Every structure is written in C-alpha cells, then in structure tokens.
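Fold this sequence, please.
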Amino acid sequence: MSGRFAGLTPYQGYEDMLVEKKDGVVLVTLNQPEKLNALSPAMRVGLKRILEDVNDDDDAKVLVLTGAGKGFCSGADMGSGAAAKDTLPSRQELEESRFGWIGRFRTMRKPVIAAVNGVAAGGGFSLALACDMRIASDKARFVTAFIRRAILPDQCATWLLPHLVGASRALPMLWLSDEVKAEEALRIGLVNMVTPHDELMARTMEIATRLAKGPSLTIELTKQAVYHSLGVSLETHAEYEENLLNKVHNSEDVKEGRAAFREKRQPNFKGR
C-alpha cells in the first residue's frame, strides 16, 4: 500500500507496481523509483493484466496510472534481464505484453488517466500517450528517446503521437528526441492539463472520482465511439453512433438523468 490515500484496497499478485482501489478508481503506481520506473518484464506483464482486471471488474470505473518517486516511466529496463532470469515470464507472455498492451488501453471499456509526475521517456512516453487523458505535474518531462539509441520508435509511438499533436510536430519530436517540458506539452496538446507538482495526485483523483460517479455505461460507450471515429468516414461513424445510442436509450442512468434534471437535483447514477 502506498499510504497516500486512506481506504484504498489492494489488488494482489503484482510485481514492481502497486495496485489499489477506492470508490471505483483503481490506482496503479509503477514502483521501481530507483530506476525512474523503467519497464521491467514483470511490470510489462502486470500492465497487460491490470487492463483486463479493471475491464472485468464491475466495481472499477476508472484506471489511474502514475509512477513512484521522481519519474513516471523511463522506458525499457535495460538492466533487468540477467538479474531476473529465473523469475522472468515466458517468452510468449513477454512478447504479448510488450506489443499488445498499448493497443489494449484504447479497446478496454474504462477511462484511463496518466498522472505524469516526472520524466516519461521511450516506452514510458508511449505508455503516457496510450492513456485517454494525461494530467502532468509542472515537473513532468517528455522525451521520445528512441532515436538517441538508433531504435525505431515503437510501442505505437508513431501512431499515437501524430494523432495527438499532428505529423509536423510528431516527426521532429521523434527524430530529435528533444525534451518537452510540461507547459510546452500543454500548448501542443500532448497533455490535457498541468498542475503544481504537489497537487498532481489530488487533482487527478478528483477528476477520476468524478468519472467514477458518472453514468459509466455512457462514459464507456463515449470512449468507444471517439476511438472508432478515428479510422472511418463520417457516414460510417454516424451509423455506428446510432447503434450505441440505442444501447443506452432505455438505461436506468438515462431515466435517472432525466428525473434529476426535472427535480433539480444531482443524479445518482448506477452504471445500468
């Protein structure tokens, strides 16, 4: 337990990361602070697993991802292989977790928020991009880093980054690997907001809790609709959106929302 939020309930069986839940919000803290939370093999497998665990947990409404200590995630853990040889996951597990988990952030139903508390570099940069929202500390820094080591940008960075900031900004960021600080990241649309460092988690949990108390079915289908729209024509998407509307039209939350509006009170959504 991190001890930062009273009443958090831990998920069990994760390595190199803390996983806790409170009031519908699941908080994942990457926990290799001495390595700026570099992605160990166990962490990669754990990230893949938590996406499925949260997606399947009806009591979990929102996933928040952050890092322990001074960094969010510094990318691949280049020194973990030899020391962890006896405890490494299988090759199949590792390969699936290495290349499959980024896309799963988009296809899972629940909202995912990155609370970027420090450097996000390489694979850690891609990890932040994969989340639905990015809330940055004023000490956050973003570095693509791949080409510094002559590595082709991976973990879907070449898709995620141009979709957020446009190709004309993405290419120099990938080619030059220059550091992008929090305020510049906000200006170009890389993050949604910047907060004072000491207020990062309080602000993130405030937003996550608001989402968790909202009409979860509608929130989840809104995410689904937005990402569907990125790859289809307007006409195709209009039909898709209409099908989603039909799914929620007679839901209990829609009825509650209408009643609350008429009665001039706050709605009490149940996610049904």
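The chain has two domains: 9-212, 216-263. The first strand starts at residue 9 and ends at 10.
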